[in-house]
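F.,

This is the one I mentioned.
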């Protein structure tokens, strides 16, 4: 059972009872209560995560897998235990399938360097989608360049902005070696049908890599049901600390791969002329790992599990629908991504534009009202500039600590932007 600690100072509350768990909401931004609408970029951290990290450094800081003394044993068991928690959270086969990395980007790069290096050759096909984040694009571009492979992009449906399944079919008919796609777009909020895409990709003989950076923090995820080969996400977007992320892969696949980094912790034995690897998942974790990060991530998983991922998803659906309805009623505002009628396929990310106003100016005026949003190409430049045809977009994104009053404040900030820039 989750224990919710009361805040020490007053936190402005709307309709949200979770906000008190997040100390950052005790601070003000430009003299106003902080309204944080940038969780797709990074999430805020509950007190329970901060306390778990603090507890490690204060009370049992020691290296893992090395010390024969009490605090080292505790550090090792807490760190390992966090992997058990993560494995359960995404329904992985076992903690041996949970490789800790720095973030989703590093996870995808490891898949490209370990699996890709040995399995992609000249003329092979790699299938991506038009809405990938750079992190699920550039590692494959680098690999394709090294190997002489060819990249195809699954198009977005012109009618609803979702993945065009006939374009996927066209790409799969060419029997690619790899299909890599996002589970939830950080720009359009679109949630892809990961299970169905994986099924089709496997039928075509492809290995599947899923960028789950924007899905795992916000919804129930079952990697065994999806059946992906590689699955990547970051701790910092799911209420955990920065610097820790997860590469999940099927055990047989991980067993078959060579590590790409060598050093302590990933070896079983080294002689002057030979080396053998440690068991999974340590085989892929060279050097002293991010121990506090793993422990913090475990605490974040405890927190999210205590709330319940269905509840997180329902909360964000309700907020997103509320925000989309409000934005629809504002003249000169264009919203990108599926409409509020389609919430089953939409996450809590809303990219928008105000006619004639640069998104950086929008973000600056929001900032003056204490509201944090992101503005730019959102690390998905091809989607934003080439596919959507705009230089940049403003974006609000939600998590469990947001409520309707946050959106009401954002709507007031939009009215302020329109007034300052004399937008009709
Ligand atoms: N990928 C993160 C975002 O969408 C940083 O903001």
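My design for it:
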């Amino acid at each position: 059972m989750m224990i919710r600690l009361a805040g020490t100072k007053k936190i402005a509350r709307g309709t949200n009872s979770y906000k008190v768990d997040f100390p950052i909401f005790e601070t003000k931004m430009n003299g106003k209560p902080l309204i944080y609408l940038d969780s797709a970029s990074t999430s805020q951290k509950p007190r329970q995560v901060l306390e778990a990290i603090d507890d490690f450094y204060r009370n049992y800081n020691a290296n893992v897998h090395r010390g024969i003394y009490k605090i080292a044993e505790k550090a090792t068991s807490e760190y390992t235990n966090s992997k058990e928690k993560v494995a359960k959270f995404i329904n992985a086969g076992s903690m041996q399938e949970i490789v800790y990395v720095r973030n989703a980007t590093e996870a995808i790069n490891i898949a490209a360097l370990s699996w890709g290096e040995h399995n992609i050759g000249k003329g092979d096909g790699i299938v991506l989608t038009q809405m990938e984040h750079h992190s699920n694009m550039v590692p494959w571009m680098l690999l394709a360049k090294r190997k002489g492979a060819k990249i195809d992009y699954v198009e977005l449906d012109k009618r609803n902005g979702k993945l065009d399944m006939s374009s996927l079919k066209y790409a799969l008919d060419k029997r690619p070696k790899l299909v890599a796609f996002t589970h939830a777009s950080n720009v359009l909020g679109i949630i892809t049908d990961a299970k169905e895409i994986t099924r089709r990709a496997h039928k075509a003989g492809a290995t599947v890599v899923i960028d789950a950076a924007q899905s795992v923090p916000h919804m129930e995820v079952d990697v065994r049901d999806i059946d992906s080969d590689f699955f990547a996400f970051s701790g910092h977007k799911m209420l955990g600390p920065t610097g820790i992320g997860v590469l999940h892969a099927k055990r047989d696949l991980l067993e078959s791969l060579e590590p790409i980094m060598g050093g302590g912790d990933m070896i079983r034995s080294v002689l002057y002329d030979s080396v053998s690897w440690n068991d999974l998942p340590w085989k892929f974790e060279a050097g002293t790992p991010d121990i506090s990060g793993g422990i913090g991530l475990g605490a974040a998983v405890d927190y999210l599990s205590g709330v319940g991922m269905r509840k997180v998803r329902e909360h964000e659906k309700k907020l997103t629908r509320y925000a989309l309805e409000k934005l629809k009623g504002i003249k000169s505002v264009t919203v990108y991504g599926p409409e509020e009628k389609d919430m089953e396929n939409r996450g809590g990310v809303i990219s928008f534009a105000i006619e004639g106003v640069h998104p950086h100016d929008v973000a600056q005026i929001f900032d003056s009202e204490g509201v944090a949003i992101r503005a730019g190409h959102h690390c998905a430049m091809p989607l934003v500039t080439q596919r959507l045809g705009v230089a940049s977009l403003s974006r609000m994104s939600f998590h469990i600590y947001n409520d309707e009053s946050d959106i009401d404040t954002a709507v007031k900030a939009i009215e302020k932007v329109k007034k300052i820039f004399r937008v009709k």
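The domain at 308-420 is CATH 3.90.1150.10 (Aspartate Aminotransferase, domain 1).

Talk soon.
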